[in-house]
Design brief:
Radius of gyration: 12 Å
Shape: flat
Distance between the termini: 26 Å
Strand content: under 5%
Largest sheet: none
Length: 71
């Protein structure tokens, strides 16, 4: 996962910070690395570049994680 995080981090620094798919995958990597807060932050950025279907999916995922974090 560290390699994937580094790879996607490089993509983000080269303009991927405005790409829904790259940000979504980066958030998934962060989540798998138990960096939930950071994943949510990235996903919230990704929402700016999402279509309606993508936005609904990601908002649901964010909500689920936020609920789990409160327990």
């Amino acid at each position: 996962l560290k390699g994937a995080k580094k790879f996607i981090g490089a993509a983000i620094s080269k303009g991927g910070d405005k790409n829904f798919e790259i940000l979504k995958h980066y958030g998934e990597i962060l989540l798998e690395m138990n960096e939930e807060k950071e994943a949510i932050t990235i996903w919230k950025s990704a929402l700016n570049f999402a279509d309606n279907k993508q936005k609904a999916e990601l908002e649901s995922k964010i909500k689920d994680i936020e609920i789990k974090r409160k327990r």
